[in-house]
Specification:
- The chain has 335 residues and is of the alpha+beta class.
- It contains nine helices and 17 strands.
- The two termini are 17 Å apart.
- The model has no long low-confidence stretch (mean pLDDT 95).
- Bound molecules: acetyl coenzyme *A.
- The site of acetyl coenzyme *A has 23 residues, from helix 2 and helix 6.
Length: 335
């Protein structure tokens, strides 16, 4: 069985924060941020905004483009590291979309690689599990886990949601040519938002001994990152994973119409494009307007590129995600 991309959509919060706005909060400048990252502004959740409704809006837009009714969706994969419920948020999106046939819905957590992982998972479900219409949503609100006093990280992130509809098709129409996925737990120390155990009083046991019970209540720390190490990792591993996916697809790098990387830093995007010899006019980038939106960045950039007419039916896209875990991976797909 084959699978193809038949729709995309995105949604961003209304509140826009410019580099100059950030310079009022931390010791930084528009010039430093633009030169080092390429980012000029980002969107951030505010007021009654929430990630689940943003994700549902992106999904609705993708379904509309695909001309598929929510009732015909049989799987929802919500790729996020910032769910609004510890037990997962995919079911809430299913409810918001009003999918009446109780399609399976679950979350995938793989930070900035989440969307690529979701895309490949969708293909596996279609090829091996008989699923027909799979919604893959990438949505994150890292603004909730950023230390807004840490100028090394708070300037990078924004909130957003993006989605694609992956549909079963015959093998001749198959639009997923090759993929490649990896993780490296050794690198977790370079980028994480680890669990934090809050202090509570120990409980006295019946014989006067102190029990280490109940367990301490937990929350998550703010994002900790060694930017230089993450930069080095991305520039080394992203070209490798794309080369490997191309090899599996039996395609040369020259067959890439568009290079679509996780939008983390323009210098990373440029370095990868140079390594793969992809000219800059075939590189998709919208990082300047949204910053690093984690699992949302690839479907958000894809949606903009499709709706603006840049990416056209039949184009081949090399997409790659990379981030915390560490995780990284790529997919060669046809739009
Ligand atoms: N404004 C002004 N100065 C700053 C800022 C800032 N916002 N941040 C750091 N600096 C200073 C530092 O203090 C340092 O000063 P010093 O030389 O006096 O010590 C100097 O600028 C250089 O700092 P570096 O951290 O070495 O700067 P670098 O060039 O490495 O850029 C950056 C930092 C932009 C974070 C870069 O390393 C990067 O983009 N790394 C990759 C990040 C990334 O892609 N993360 C993916 C996350 S995906 C996920 O899964 C969540």
């Amino acid at each position: 069985k084959g699978c193809k991309l038949v729709g995309c959509g995105s949604a961003v919060p209304a509140l826009q924060i410019s580099n100059d706005d950030l310079a009022k909060v931390v010791d930084t400048s528009d010039e430093w941020i633009s030169v080092r990252t390429g980012i000029r502004k980002r969107r951030v959740l505010s007021g009654s905004d929430n990630l689940t409704s943003l994700a549902a809006e992106a999904a609705r837009n993708a379904l509309q483009m695909a001309e598929v009714n929510p009732d015909d969706v049989d799987l929802i994969l919500m790729c996020t590291s910032t769910p609004e419920d510890l037990f997962g948020s995919a079911s809430q999106i299913q409810r918001a979309l009003g999918c009446k046939r109780n399609p399976l819905a679950y979350d995938i957590t793989a930070a900035c690689s989440g969307f690529i992982l979701g895309l490949i998972s969708a293909a596996c479900h279609i090829r091996g599990g008989g699923f027909h219409n799979v919604l893959v949503i990438g949505a994150d609100a890292l603004s909730r886990y950023v230390d807004w006093t840490d100028r090394g990280t708070c300037i990078l992130f924004g909130d957003a949601a993006g989605a694609v509809l992956v549909q079963a098709c015959n093998t001749e129409e198959d639009g997923l040519f090759g993929f490649d996925l990896h993780s490296d737990g050794e690198g977790q120390r370079h980028l994480n938002a680890s669990i934090k155990e809050n202090e509570t009083d120990n409980v006295l046991g019946t014989n006067g001994s102190v029990l280490d019970f109940p367990p301490r209540r937990s929350s998550y720390s703010c994002i900790q990152m060694n930017g230089k190490e993450v930069f080095r990792f991305a520039v080394r591993c992203v070209p490798q994973t794309i080369e490997s996916a191309l090899e599996k697809a039996g395609l040369p790098a020259s067959s890439i119409d568009w290079l679509l990387l996780h939008q983390a830093n323009q210098r990373i995007i440029d370095a990868v494009a140079t390594r793969l010899e992809v000219p800059s006019d075939r590189v998709i980038s919208n990082l300047a307007n949204y910053g690093n939106t984690s699992a949302a960045s690839i479907p958000l950039a894809l949606d903009e590129a499709v709706r603006s007419g840049k990416v056209k039916a039949g184009h081949t896209i090399a997409a790659a995600g990379f981030g915390a875990g560490l995780t990284w991976g790529s997919a060669i797909v046809r739009w």
